[in-house]
From TrEMBL:
Subunit field text: Homodimer.
Principal location class: cytoplasm
Chain's role: Catalyzes the condensation of pantoate with beta-alanine in an ATP-dependent reaction via a pantoyl-adenylate intermediate.
Miscellaneous remark of the record: The reaction proceeds by a bi uni uni bi ping pong mechanism.
Gene: panC
InterPro entries per the UniProt record, alphabetical: Pantoate_ligase, Pantoate_ligase_C, Rossmann-like_a/b/a_fold
Binding site for beta-alanine: Q57
Protein name as catalogued: Pantothenate synthetase
Classification via SUPFAM superfamilies: Nucleotidylyl transferase
Annotated source species: Corynebacterium guangdongense
Residues at which (R)-pantoate binds: Q57, Q150
Signal peptide start-end: none
Reaction catalysed by this enzyme: (R)-pantoate + beta-alanine + ATP = (R)-pantothenate + AMP + diphosphate + H(+)
Length: 266
């Protein structure tokens, strides 16, 4: 596997022949990312993993500074799951001169739920993903269903801007204890991780027919977590609904870490 650190060193991947699959990440790779890389490997002749902690999608400076970074470990995992290239540019290379003057805005879809809690987050995501699509020219790009709102926004981005890429979604990968795999899990202490399990437990309550109020009460009873939101939405527009099928979405903070999860209902 080849590690590419500069935009100037990026090859014309499509000229290599065959199809190109891209797995966009912010590093701190785990088995959830591995499942995306494996899927891309099955589908494509060339697999590129991007490894870039994007400052545009962080609202809090401490969150950006403390985000886990380990390029050597990322390279080992990416290679083990079948990547051909790891693209790990510097911030100065991606954003010469600092924050770009021109960026992508995500409209109403980017201002509710995660967007309300993290203003500007999805604009930052959409901007960097557009840059990656432009730089790498993948035939397919792979995203996890754990970030359900992000996935919906990327699909709308591709449609609205007529981008020549197929968006492929992969199921959530969970640890044996039920917690959705996330790079942020690395920052949890054992006690904080135990407390965080209340989020998938609350989502399972909703899947079993409990009300949103009952599921929220389960989380509120845990003094070690702070609930941001727990809602059931229509996956088409992310408006709250009582109909099925639907998507249950939750976000909470435990210690210094903010976690999200979701579960399909019906």
């Amino acid at each position: 596997m080849q590690i590419i650190r500069s935009l100037a060193d990026l090859p014309d991947f499509r000229a290599l022949g065959g199809s190109v699959g891209l797995v966009p990440t912010m590093g701190a790779l785990h088995d959830g990312h591995g499942s995306l890389i494996s899927l891309a490997r099955e589908d494509n002749d060339v697999v590129v993993v991007s490894d870039f902690v994007n400052p545009l999608q962080f609202g809090e400076e401490d969150d950006y500074v403390n985000y886990p970074r380990d390029l050597d470990a990322d390279a080992e995992l990416a290679q083990r799951y079948g990547a051909d290239y790891l693209f790990a540019p510097a911030v100065e290379d991606m954003y010469p001169g600092g924050t770009p003057q021109i960026s992508v805005t995500t409209g109403t879809m980017g201002t509710v739920l995660e967007g309300a809690s993290r203003p500007g987050h999805f604009d930052g995501v959409a901007t960097v993903v557009t840059k990656l699509f432009t730089l790498i020219h993948p035939h397919r790009a792979y995203f996890g269903e754990k970030d359900a709102q992000q996935l919906a926004i990327i699909r709308r981005l591709v449609t609205d801007l007529n981008l020549d890429v197929e968006v492929v979604a992969a199921p959530i990968v969970r640890a044996p204890d039920g917690l959705a795999e996330s790079s942020r899990n690395q920052r949890l202490s054992p006690a904080e991780r135990d407390a965080a399990l209340v989020l998938p437990q609350a989502l399972r309550l909703l899947a079993d027919g409990s009300s949103v109020d009952e599921a929220r009460a389960l989380i509120d009873a845990n003094a070690n977590v702070e609930l941001d939101y727990l809602v059931v939405v229509d996956p088409a527009d992310f408006g709250e609904t009582t109909k099925r099928p639907a998507l249950a979405l939750g976000a909470l903070r435990v210690g210094p870490v903010r976690l999200i999860d979701n579960l399909r209902l019906g």
